[in-house]
Amino acid sequence: MSKSFGSFHALNDVSFKIEKGEFFSLLGPSGCGKTTLLRIIAGFEYPDSGTVFFDSQEIIALTADKRPSNTVFQNYALFPHLSVYENVAFPLRLKKVGRQELDRRVLEYLHLVQLDGHINKKPNQLSGGQRQRVAIARALIDEPSILLLDEPLSALDAKLRSNLLVELDTLHDKIGITFIYVTHDQSEALSVSDRIAVMNQGKVLQVGSPFEIYESPATEFVASFIGETNLFDARVVQCEPYPVEEGKDEEYMVNLDIPELGKEIKVTDYERTQIGQRVSFTVRPEKIRITLEEPVTRKSNINIFSGVVEEPIYSGFQSKFYVRLDSGVLLKVFKQHTNYLDDGPEISWKDRVYVSWSANDGYIVEDIAQ
Q: What is the model's pTM?
């Protein structure tokens, strides 16, 4: 599927399949095409090429009101002059549902979104989170096959957004329909999604589970956009089979030359790379160990570097360190505080430290075109 607005290419040959009942997220920065894609699925926009199928039925010719989907918008889109009850009842009144059935279903869905005690209030008497719950109940009451959510929590404060996200995930588990959720917030997508499509510049770069997206990013952009990471250009100098348990996928021990680090490092990989091949290498900050003493190990697959703490940032549950390695490169390291700290973090500004990680904890992200 492709879509342009004048000279701007909003979507460029996008194609993927969403399973029935999934909580599926479209994740990417502003302007990447995720909202345009959602509007095409909803029927508010039409693609220049390509089509949309619901349950193997092509629905691209159907108008929005004829499609088995409803949309929850960022700005709630509630009727300000109607009560909570009447806002939720509105889709059923359009269908001329009988009074008794209408009342039963409205009360059922208001209970589902925990608004039983607010049925007679107007939208301006509700908090932002409550208004969004009204919008979700209204979108669900005529029982669509798919619920489309266009950054529904972005207007809320951080704590309320976090709480409502948990409620939304619980709601999905209860009703079991397909949710397609648009967000630019990586933590939101990682915490609730069954699968995620990461988008940038109108393209889908990777589709996978939160675990796959985070641990095995397909591109440099995915690696850097999802969470924080350390990313380097590298060249393969050695690639040898690595012994694994019977029945597991074959692995290779790869030696990479990374000029920024000043020496070779080791990383395990599932694909045989070629000597001289240029690749991208990433290691997440939480995979790196930081110590005041040089690690003592007999293992040959541990990468060890030394440097000086340039910036320590204490965040309660963890400390983030920016370490200037002897080669001059700045490395991000996260240290979890799993035990009570009597005298504060043991590592501080200007301390000389050692950073280390296993070959299993790094990842070769992608080939770089020669």
A: 0.90
Q: What local confidence, expressed as pLDDT, does residue 180 receive?
A: 97
Strands (E), the chain: 3-5, 8-11, 23-27, 53-54, 57-58, 69-72, 146-150, 178-183, 195-200, 203-208, 230-242, 251-258, 263-269, 278-283, 289-291, 302-314, 318-325, 330-336, 352-358, 362-367
Report which residue type is found at 193.
S
Phi/psi at 351 (nearest 5 deg)? -65, 140
In 82-229, the DSSP E strands lie at: 146-150, 178-183, 195-200, 203-208
Q: Which structural domains are found in the chain, ordered by start?
A: 3-225 (3.40.50.300), 230-367 (2.40.50.140)
Spatial contact of 305 and 272, defined as CB atoms under 8 Å apart: no
148-161 mean pLDDT: 85
Q: Is 141 left (phi over 0), alpha (psi -120 to 50) or beta?
A: alpha
